[in-house]
Amino acid sequence: MTYSEQMVDQLEAGKLKEAQNSFKLALINDDDDMLFSLAEELYALGFLQQVRTIYLKLLDRYPDEDELKTSLATIAIDEGHNDEALSYLAQIKPDSPAYVQALLVAADLYQTEEEFEVTEGKLKEAYSIAPNEPAVEFALGEFYFMVGQYADAIQYYFQLIKNGYTDFAKVDIAGRLGICYAQSGQFKKALGYFKQVKPEYQTSDIRFQKGLTQLQLGDNDEAITTLEDLINDDDQYASAYPELAKAYEKENKYQQALRVVQEGLGVDQYNEYLYSLAAEITSHLGNQKLMKKYLVKAHELAPDNMTITLQYSNFLLHQHDDAANIELLRPLIKEDETDPQLYWNLARSYQRTDQLDLAGKYYEAALPAYNENPTFLKELINYYREAGETDKLMDELEHYLRLVPTDMEMQDLYDQYEDYK
User: Fold this and answer.
1) Using an 8 Å Cβ cutoff, are 362 and 347 in contact?
2) Residue 421 confidence class, pLDDT cut points 50, 70, 90
3) Integer CA distances (angstroms), 66 to 102, 111, 124, 246, in order
4) What is the rounded CA–CA span in Å between residue 278 and residue 295?
5) pLDDT for the residue numbered 336
6) Residue 75's closest CA among 53, 59, 94, 97?
7) pLDDT tens digit sequence for 311-350
8) pTM (2 d.p.)
9) Which of 62, 110, 200, 220 has CB 3.0 to 4.6 Å from 115, enough for a Cys bridge?
10) What average pLDDT score do residues 53-64 get?
């Protein structure tokens, strides 16, 4: 047995001190091929310093061996020494057999520095030299996948599939294509690829994406099965709970939907979206007390979330709790920063509490956003009628009737005021 083999056996047995001694002896006694093999095994085990020592020893013997330089550059990137990596890569010329690999390593380096244009340039150069090289196709697919350019990623993943690669570097290509097609809105194609993912690659993430795709296609029963199975196998996968609840909600199975959300809250009790969703589902069950409990908790967790704030405000309006609604919304008024729905909700509460000046202020603040909304205009007309602002009332009545000429009730109101004038 060589010293290199002894070292690997000792590492697997947890004998680190003995392995260290064997490593020293391997450097002195083992041949170059054995040392190169040892370096590959140590790299897989994460012993980067020892790998670097071997490659430097071999590079000293074979200074023109560019593959060693790319390997040393890779280790330097892993250790965060990008300048050192660039120094090795700069030594590799375009006529070198290792040049394509050097471009891939350089692309990886620039990607870690978020210099994505440079990354793309390096990868495209590699592709122009070796268009049929699977490692290059995979690198381009992964790059475009990472930056969210899914349509671009598809062509490179598809090339791998065509060339017989169902997986590469422990990545399932069908799963990648499924996600890319789903993100591109091509849900039928996405589902077809998700169904092709091999069992060993059926991760929780892939199963979740499959469930989402089934939901997008309206296959609610299939989505329920997929997401229930996922949760049964991985009950800590928090993202599955709200999607499963929405699937039940679409099937009008509100009790089951609420059960799922409550289970999700057991996993992620600080998720404001789950509380918000629980409130939405509870509204279908008529339990106003429980709905309020969930909304209060959602708002406590995310007081700056305007969607949740307005959901809570709409609930308070429905309950005619105008004092609470005003208390909720009034601190949020900031010029040019406020959601117009907030103005509308405030206006409603001020009108119902006979604070007509403030109601008018906020109705008119909301008007630019809702100028073509018949429901809003009808409320505004009612406000002008209550406030006795006849001229504004007639203007908005005319505007409303241009939008909804068939509303005879509002036409009668217009005629009454016309006769009055």
Assistant:
1) yes
2) low
3) 9, 22, 21, 55
4) 8
5) 62
6) 53
7) 999 999 999 999 999 999 999 987 666 789 999 999 999 9
8) 0.80
9) 110
10) 94
